[in-house]
Amino acid sequence: MVTRDAIDGALGIHAKWRARLESAIATGKSDFIPAVVAKDDACDFGRWLYTLAGEDTKTAHYAKVKVFHAEFHTTAGKILNMAVSGRKAEAQKALEPGGDYARISGKLVMAMNTWKTTIK
Questions:
Q1: Which CATH superfamily is domain 4-117 in?
Q2: What is the mean pLDDT of residues 19-42?
């Protein structure tokens, strides 16, 4: 079942990724593995999203969030890979306003917040 708490929790957790990526860019290191970060079903929200069934999965909100969540993880994984493989400038560019991360993060946050407004 879709709940406001699940969406709020996901928003909070995903918001931390920017700081994690900034740290990886600065240090060239991370406790996270890029290939795992790139998987949209490896985080708590993704696992929850994939367990939804029935009417919860038949809305345009679910479809948008699922697509944007997957793209968010793909993008974060790519940026993390750049950061830990010495491509600091490329990773930084992707993280800057107007870059891939800001674009998909904004879409995901907007879609999640819109979905949340439909939940009673």
A1: Aspartate receptor, ligand-binding domain (1.20.120.30)
A2: 97
